[in-house]
Specification:
The chain is mainly alpha-helical. Helices cover 41% and strands 10% of the residues. The chain has 6 helices and 4 strands. Helix 4 crosses helix 5.
Length: 155
């Protein structure tokens, strides 16, 4: 997993890649002018490792840098951050929580643009009929979504 953190908070991330070089490629222009600093990421790295070990369940206190996201996108991502470990919510629920109850497709688009996986747990958002919906990376992304939900006990 790779993360980009600005002075304002976590800005973007990528996951499920097999090497640091792949993370760097995936993050692309987000890294322009960045400096690598494991020291600054040590606490967050530890928390993410705890999450994957089934010990850390909440990242709601992690400050995000969402300055360039639109208002609905920010609201949808913040709604997603309220979904507890081991639970799911529908795209319809996200839309309503974000103030646009008639916009579940827009909620789905916001989830597809989530650039901070795990910290904004869009894997917990599913279709109203219980289908998993989408997750980055097509079929392999759905397998990852299923694995994350299973790890949390939500599948």
């Amino acid at each position: 997993m790779g993360l980009v953190i600005t002075e304002k908070g976590v800005r973007s991330g990528t996951m499920a890649l097999s090497s640091p070089d792949q993370c760097i490629m995936e993050l692309g222009h987000e890294l322009d002018g960045a400096e690598q600093s494991s020291r600054h990421l040590a606490k967050l790295r530890s928390r993410i490792q705890q999450y994957f070990a089934g010990k850390r369940t909440d990242f709601s206190d992690v400050v995000l840098d969402l300055e360039d996201a639109g208002p609905f996108q920010r609201a949808a991502w913040e709604a997603t951050r309220t979904i507890p470990w081991g639970e799911t919510r529908s795209y319809q629920w996200i839309a309503a929580y974000a103030g646009k109850p008639r916009a579940p497709r827009a909620a789905g688009q916001a989830m597809s643009r989530n650039r901070i996986p795990i910290i904004v747990p869009c894997h917990r958002v599913i279709a109203s009929d219980g289908r998993l919906g989408g997750y980055g990376g097509g079929a392999s992304g759905l397998a990852l979504k299923r694995r994350l939900l299973s790890m949390e006990g939500a599948v």
